[in-house]
Amino acid sequence: MPIWVDADACPKVIREVLCRAAERTAMQTTFVANQLLSVPSSPHIRALQVPKGFDVADNEIVRRVNSGDLVITGDIPLAAEVLAKGAAALNWRGEPFSTETIAAQLTMRDFMETLRASGIQSGGPATLSQADRQAFARQLDRWLARQRMQ
User: Fold this and answer.
1) For the segment 29-74, what is each residue's pLDDT rounded down to a tens digit?
2) Contact present, 89 and 81 (Cβ < 8 Å)
3) Residue of 49, 67, 78, 93 with fewest CB within 10 Å of its CB?
4) Side-chain-side CA neighbours of residue 21 (13 Å)
């Protein structure tokens, strides 16, 4: 079960955690982006560059993902699509997306987008904290441990 990373917006520190985990566990990890990414030379890590364009990387991940794979993304619509295909999804802060909550998350995302479009400043997400990084690493380790047990 490989890991697919929506790498265009993935924080560097999260990419580093993923690369260390890929090496440690020999888990195939693919960073998908519409820009050239530098990744460590490893048989377990690769970068897949897709053409520039809106949601091109997301669409490529959806096309390639299989049930049981893990997708790392901060994109709620992408998470919804991969969950529908039976994959798992985890955001940069270590919060797993789930089929039980994804509809509510999509609704809130659309609501906030509507507010921004009407001129209301809602601010952006908080900076990724050390606690967020640790939560991400913990959730990733849990997923990797479950894969080893199967």
Assistant:
1) 999 999 999 899 999 999 999 999 888 999 999 999 999 999 999 8
2) no
3) 67
4) 23
| Identity of residue 112 | M
Close Cβ partners of 102 (under 8 Å, ≥ 6 residues apart)? 76, 79, 80, 83
Q: Is 38 helix (H, G, I), strand (E, B) or coil?
A: coil
Residues with Cβ < 8 Å from 122, sequence gap 6 or more? 112, 115, 116
Beta bridge partner(s), residue 88: 70
Q: How many residues are listed for the chain in this entry?
A: 150
The pLDDT value given to residue 124:
63
User: Can you tell me the distance from the alpha carbon of 116 to that of 110, in angstroms, rounded to the nearest whole number?
Assistant: 10
- Whole-model pTM: value is 0.86
